[in-house]
Design a protein that fits this description.
- The chain is α+β, with helices and mostly antiparallel strands.
- Helices cover 16% and strands 40% of the residues.
- The protein is built from 3 helices and 11 strands, in the order E-H-E-E-E-E-H-E-H-E-E-E-E-E.
- The radius of gyration is 20 Å and the shape is globular.
- Strand 3 (43-50) and strand 4 form a beta hairpin.
- The chain has helices at 16-30, 74-81, 101-104, and strands at residues 5-11, 36-40, 43-50, 53-60, 65-70, 86-89, 123-126, 135-142, 147-154, 157-164, 168-170.
- The protein has a 5-stranded antiparallel β-sheet with strand order 10-9-8-7-11, with no helix packed on it. A 4-stranded antiparallel β-sheet has the order 2-5-1-6, covered by helices on one side. Strands 3-4 form a two-stranded antiparallel ribbon.
- It has 2 domains: 5-107, 2-Layer Sandwich (Alpha-Beta Plaits), CATH 3.30.70.940; 123-170, SH3 type barrels (Roll).
Length: 172
């Protein structure tokens, strides 16, 4: 079986979420769940300052583009390419080029899954990064982002902090 890769699809500006919804619906209708694995519109949290008021908003990292994790074949290419709002795949000519692991890393999307020996409720110690030498109990785990959320005492109150799997180890 062919390997699944991440591909970039160009869309009409402002149609990213519609394209994602349309592809998701087509995957369900045509039973392509094993070939088109995931469709993403990468978002980032940004602090905007308007009229002297700071506000947290989510903005698209790449307006006009959608990321698709899929096995490239004639069927999947046709389904994605002929989705309303899609103008084409990113790549030379009509041949889509998959993203490399190095290109995916800054997006927080990792192709390799780290197997961990801890779970929610376990006590861990942070061994790297900003929170090094901090201990905490895992309150949540995000396998997709490869992160754990722990509560840290900050200014006298419990504050949730997200830490990468690579920066933590289980306490004995």
């Amino acid at each position: 079986m062919a390997e699944a890769n991440w591909y970039v699809v160009h869309t009409y500006s402002g149609y990213e979420n519609k394209v994602k919804a349309n592809i998701d619906k087509t995957i369900e209708n045509r039973h392509l769940e094993d070939q088109i694995l995931e469709v993403r519109v990468p978002m980032e949290d940004v602090t905007e300052l308007k009229n002297g008021v700071k506000k947290q908003v989510s903005k698209k990292m790449f307006p006009g583009y959608v990321l698709i994790h899929m096995i490239m074949n004639d069927d999947t290419w046709y389904v994605v390419r002929n989705t309303r709002g899609v103008t084409g795949f990113v790549g030379p000519g009509s041949k889509p080029v998959p993203l490399t692991d190095a290109e995916m890393r800054p997006l927080g999307i990792k192709s390799e899954n780290v197997v961990v020996d801890f779970a929610e409720g376990d006590t861990i110690v942070v061994i790297g990064g900003v929170w090094k030498d901090t201990c905490g109990v895992i309150t949540a785990m995000n396998q997709n982002k490869q992160t754990v959320t722990i509560n840290v005492e900050l200014f006298g109150r419990e504050t949730p902090v997200e830490v990468s799997f690579a920066d933590v180890k289980k306490m004995n």
